[in-house]
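#struct-help
A.M.: can someone run this one for me? Single chain, 124 residues.
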Amino acid sequence: MDPGARTRKRERPKQHKPTTNTTAILRTLPRKMTAQSFIVRIKKDTPADEVTKIKEQITSSGGSIDHEYNTLFTGFSARIPEEAANSLKGHQHIDDMEVDQEMKTHHYGIGGFAPLYVIGWMEY
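D.P.: on it. Structure tokens below:
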């Protein structure tokens, strides 16, 4: 064993410091790359060709259709650039358009409460 090994100080790897700000980078990206995810609900009596036109408007502006909904409501989730989202908000065939986000339910932790139907005290 090298006698000087114990006395030598261990060199730490240099920390990488970012040289640019992430938000500054995002501001320089084209608007269509900074699209936000929305859930778009279509009105009940809207013809299929009108729904197709709405989807084409989204994709032609740089957006993308992620998922289609046909069970509880007619609509889709899509990544839509800001300008296209603003133009779609007043569309005659769109019932509602909201930002797609994570939803959480109430957490019943220690000291919390649970409704009767959760713990089985009530029968239906």
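A.M.: thanks! Residues 29-99 form a domain with the Alpha-Beta Plaits fold (CATH 3.30.70.80).
D.P.: also worth noting: Strands lie at 36-42, 64-69, 75-80, 94-99.
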